[in-house]
Design brief:
Blueprint (H helix, E strand, L loop, with lengths): L8 H16 L4 H7 L4 H9 L6 H10 L5 H12 L15 H12 L2 E6 L10 H11 L5 H13 L2 H4 L6 E6 H5 L5 H16 L4 E5 L13 E5 L7 E6 L2 E5 L2 H16 L4 H14 L1
């Protein structure tokens, strides 16, 4: 297959998984390329996501890599044959690639689990809340760049509000709910938006109260996008240098453990809903 014009998160992940399987066998890139009747340059392009790979080639490589996990093989084949052109592609060249990659990862996830400490999760934000956050974090951003950012964030909600919604669970610290990124009216509207998403069955929300003892997870913010098999999970973590897409198994295991620890520190969904109701009246 010819090189792809645009790298996508899904293509890059497919190549990464094929490389992991090859390396687990201790096989050199040129040896794997020979199995496909290709050269090392073509193999490098496949493993970096620059070039596509057919389902037949994925299955052939899986055999030579001694991969017997049928669930993983079929998931990789599905990734290789996927021709989805998602709504996020409308923003290519308009927004930074990480915006598109995030939407793509969310679209293909079988479930989404998120922890947020300082802000309301993007999937639950109102337009006014999102505008206040972007305006504060990126002062001086012209409307020509601000508007598509807000629009993109609002459109991401389709993953939990569509005809076949992806199960979404989020853990939010009380701090994030109390911070007024704009004014009282925006804060109250944001809390009502969260309650609506809960009542409509679009989100399972748990709250970590500010007076919770033993919670040291200020750096716990992350989103876990579950794959069709655990090996294809992805964790998104924001950092000062941008959003990191984590798929290395040791790191995934650490972050899964972290999620369980934070979950234990949170209120039940029912108690969290009542908590938000009370807070709406207090603000």
């Amino acid at each position: 297959m010819p090189p792809k014009r645009h790298l996508t998160a899904r293509r890059v992940r497919l190549g990464s998984e094929l490389r992991k399987l090859r390396e687990s066998m201790g096989m050199k890139s040129r040896e794997a390329a020979a199995l496909l009747g290709a050269d090392s340059v073509q193999m490098s392009q496949i493993e970096s996501g620059v070039a596509g790979v057919s389902a037949k080639r994925v299955r052939r490589l899986a055999v030579h890599y001694a991969c017997t996990d049928e669930g993983l093989i079929e998931a990789l084949v599905a990734m290789a044959t996927d021709r989805t052109r998602g709504w996020w592609e409308e923003y290519r060249g308009v927004l930074p690639p990480v915006f598109l990659d995030t939407a793509e990862v969310e679209h293909h996830a079988t479930a989404l689990r998120e922890i947020v400490i300082t802000h309301v999760p993007g999937l639950l934000q109102t337009t006014d809340y999102a505008r206040a956050v972007y305006t504060y974090m990126m002062p001086g951003l012209p409307d020509s760049e601000l508007t598509p950012r807000i629009e993109h964030r609002m459109r991401r909600r389709c993953v939990i509000e569509g005809a076949e919604p992806t199960p979404y669970e989020t853990i939010i610290h009380e701090f994030a709910l109390r911070v007024r990124v704009a004014d009282r009216a925006v804060a109250q509207a944001q809390l009502r938006q969260i309650l609506t998403q809960i009542e409509d069955g679009h989100a399972t929300v748990r709250i970590i109260p500010a007076d919770q003892d033993g919670f040291a997870g200020a750096e716990a913010s992350m989103m876990q996008a579950c794959g069709p098999v655990p090996q294809l999970d992805t964790v998104l973590r924001d950092s000062p240098t941008g959003t990191a897409f984590i798929d290395a198994e040791p790191q995934l295991n650490q972050l899964r453990t972290l999620f369980r620890k934070v979950e234990k520190a949170s209120l039940s969904p029912a108690a969290s809903r009542d908590f938000i109701h009370r807070l709406t009246k207090e603000l």
